[in-house]
Design a protein that fits this description.
mainly alpha; globular; 94 residues; 7% strand; two-stranded antiparallel ribbon
Length: 94
């Protein structure tokens, strides 16, 4: 019997793994703000930048909000991956 993974294309499995990793990233709690997740911070940045349509100095914005460099780096990297993959930035996050 062939497993679903063996019967699928390798890029499908890779895409599935990427989606799972991204979901885990977005669900991570922010150390300095335990009531927030990465998804919450990304949503805040998107709201502040009119869903990515206006220029916003994201690192400065997050620093002004009191976020540490790890959070800034995580959020900026996530947003850059979305743009470089030419994915539309989500209006709301899970």
């Amino acid at each position: 019997m062939t497993s679903p993974v063996e019967g699928s294309r390798p890029d499908d499995e890779l895409s599935r793994q990427r989606r799972k990793r991204e979901s885990r990233l977005l669900d991570q709690r922010i150390v300095d703000f335990p009531s927030l997740t990465v998804a919450d911070v990304v949503a805040d940045v998107l709201a502040a930048s009119d869903d990515g349509r206006s220029d916003l100095d994201v690192p400065a914005y997050l620093s002004d909000q009191g976020h540490n460099w790890q959070t800034v780096e995580t959020v900026v990297s996530y947003l850059q991956r979305q743009v470089s993959a030419k994915r539309p930035l989500p209006r709301t996050l899970p």
